[in-house]
Specification:
Strands 1-3-2 form a 3-stranded antiparallel sheet. It is built from 2 helices and 3 strands; from the N terminus they run βααββ.
C-alpha cells in the first residue's frame, strides 16, 4: 500500500496540514498509522466529511454555564 504525508494530504484535500493532523489524531481517516512523529495516510484515503454544525442550531447542555 502506498502512503502520503499530512502535507501531501492537505494539498490534495484543500485543507491545512494542521487540520489533517487533527483528523488523524481523532481517528477520522481510515487506515492511518503513526510512524514516529509523522502520520502515514493511505494514498487512496478519502477526505472525511465536515462534522461541524452548519445550521446554526447548537446543543444546549445543562450544568455547563456560569448562570447556574
Amino acid at each position: 500500500m502506498e502512503y502520503m504525508t499530512a502535507s501531501e494530504a492537505a494539498k490534495k484535500w484543500g485543507v491545512s496540514s494542521r487540520r489533517v493532523h487533527s483528523l488523524c489524531s481523532e481517528g477520522r481517516i481510515e487506515g492511518v498509522s503513526r510512524l514516529g512523529n509523522a502520520w502515514a495516510i493511505p494514498k487512496d484515503a478519502e477526505k472525511p466529511k465536515d462534522a461541524r454544525i452548519k445550521n446554526g442550531k447548537y446543543i444546549k447542555r445543562s450544568g455547563c454555564g456560569a448562570d447556574e
